[in-house]
Automatic annotation (TrEMBL):
<dbReference type="InterPro" id="IPR037523">
    <property type="entry name" value="VOC_core"/>
</dbReference>
<protein>
    <submittedName>
        <fullName>VOC family protein</fullName>
    </submittedName>
</protein>
<dbReference type="InterPro" id="IPR029068">
    <property type="entry name" value="Glyas_Bleomycin-R_OHBP_Dase"/>
</dbReference>
<feature type="domain" description="VOC">
    <location>
        <begin position="4"/>
        <end position="128"/>
    </location>
</feature>
<dbReference type="Pfam" id="PF00903">
    <property type="entry name" value="Glyoxalase"/>
</dbReference>
<dbReference type="InterPro" id="IPR004360">
    <property type="entry name" value="Glyas_Fos-R_dOase_dom"/>
</dbReference>
Length: 131
């Protein structure tokens, strides 16, 4: 048996704010769960994304502390084309989410941008550049 990726978990200080952000990115997260200590959704293909409150994580690991500096991981959302990267970035920042990096044409052949979720986790937006 070979282990396979199944779930990524995001620790959040504000469940409602985190869920609102990821809903804007198209994740199908049930409504009415904003006060729950653990929420998850299954993406097409079966991979799951989960959110846990800081209190939930600390109940499982009393010594847990948030990571400091940089970012240990980031979710990346593929957009249809470079224009959609710019559009989604503009919509998120207009809604008050913080920009980490404005859209740019990356040397590896993608239009790329980074917006921070409500907990400061980087969220990448990207699309292949035309050949």
């Amino acid at each position: 048996m070979t282990p396979r990726p199944d779930l990524i978990s995001i620790v959040t200080a504000d469940m409602a704010a985190a869920l609102a952000f990821y809903r804007r990115l198209g994740l199908d997260i049930p409504l009415g769960v904003e006060d729950e200590p653990h929420v998850e959704t299954t993406l097409p293909g079966g991979f799951r994304v989960a959110w846990d409150t800081v209190a939930t994580v600390r109940s499982l690991d009393p010594g847990w502390t948030p990571p400091q500096g940089g970012h240990p991981s980031a979710l990346a959302f593929r957009c249809e084309d470079p224009a959609e990267v710019d559009k989604v970035y503009a919509e998120l920042t207009a809604a008050g989410y913080r920009s980490h990096r404005e859209p740019w044409d990356a040397f590896w052949g993608q239009r790329y941008a980074v917006v921070l979720d409500p907990d400061g986790n980087p969220t990448d937006l990207f699309a292949p550049l035309p050949s």
